[in-house]
Design a protein that fits this description.
single chain; mainly beta; globular; signal; Sperma_CUB_dom_sf
């Protein structure tokens, strides 16, 4: 009897412990439809709960796209994060993961569905985020946003419209100062170049032009510096694509990383000790963002880039 009673007692304790752990999981979110709206993390702006697992799915009319604009953003860096999906929240649709205290730029979907997923741990919280979302017609590129220390000139974002950027004193503009909203081949509109960045005059990074070249992390092949934050933009001739081939790659796993924009998928995150496969742009530009933390240092990376003319295949049988 005592053994049986003891067994029952510890089973009860186990069940209570499981119930307590489950109680920490905070679920929220939902499906959103309509031309526009606002999404806030639970408890905003007074802090989201620990153990949050919240998913929002925004659905637009068929052939339209969705743009989200962050109005506020503060998540415990590296431990709490907001995952963005270009479609339903499935690994194949994963686009990027946001964390920290910097206000992210606007994000535009390529489809009529866009998803956000908030995940927090069981410790520190922050005030959370607030997002404005808007359904975009096929003829609109949407507001591309303003980079930190940047100035935007122009308030029209439809096909044919042009906007310009400049930087405040003490910062250099990297990228194209003028963007044009153009109609793409898939019946949607997009900006012809990425939003430029404004970097301090003594910061690493820059704009790379020409048919080919090499990009390396600062101090390569020696160890890179801690707390690095470098951005390079590679620009090829109109109509070309860019091939990026890595020849060396060594970074502290998860904490130091290289983020690449302008490819397919739209954003690629690289970290660790393995040489990544080649990256091919889907337009005539690529942007590389290299970030390190305050701890370990490694060799970094080196990559060769080359512009490649995009061939157009004609059906000669139809030409007579």
């Amino acid at each position: 009897m005592e053994i049986k009673s003891g067994f029952t007692f510890w089973n009860l304790v186990f069940l209570l412990m499981v119930s307590c752990v489950k109680g920490f999981i905070y679920t929220c979110g939902g499906t959103l439809k309509g031309l526009n709206g606002t999404i806030e993390s639970p408890g905003f702006p007074y802090g989201y709960p620990n153990g949050a697992n919240c998913t929002w799915v925004i659905i637009a009319e068929e052939r339209n796209r969705i743009q989200i604009v962050f109005q506020s953003f503060a998540l415990e860096e590296e431990y709490d994060y907001l995952s963005l999906y270009d479609g339903h929240p499935h690994p194949a649709n994963f686009r990027t993961r946001l964390t920290g205290f910097h206000l992210p730029p606007p994000v535009t979907s390529t489809k009529s569905v866009f998803s956000l997923r908030l995940t927090s741990d069981f410790a520190v919280s922050a005030h959370g985020f607030k997002v404005y979302y808007e359904e975009l017609q096929s003829s609109s590129c949407g507001n591309p946003g303003v980079p930190p220390k940047g100035i935007l000139y122009g308030q029209r974002f439809d096909v044919g419209d042009k906007i310009r950027y400049s930087c405040v004193t003490g910062y250099i503009l990297d990228g194209h100062s003028q963007l044009t909203c153009i109609a793409s081949s898939v019946n949607t509109a997009s900006w012809d170049f990425p939003v430029p960045i404004c970097r301090a005059e003594d910061a690493c990074g820059g704009t790379m032009r020409g048919s080919s070249g090499i990009i390396s992390s600062p101090n390569f092949p020696n160890e890179y510096h801690n707390n690095a934050d470098c951005t390079w933009t590679i620009v090829a001739e109109p109509g070309d694509t860019i091939s990026l081939i890595f020849t060396d790659f060594q970074m502290e796993e998860k904490y130091d990383y290289l983020e690449i924009e302008g490819s397919e998928p739209p954003t690629i995150g690289l970290s660790g000790m393995n040489i990544p496969p080649p990256v091919i742009s889907n337009k005539n530009w690529l942007r590389l963002h290299f970030v390190t933390d305050s701890n370990h240092r490694y060799r970094g990376f080196s990559a060769h880039y080359q512009g490649t003319f995009k061939e157009i295949n004609f059906n000669w049988a139809c030409i007579s």
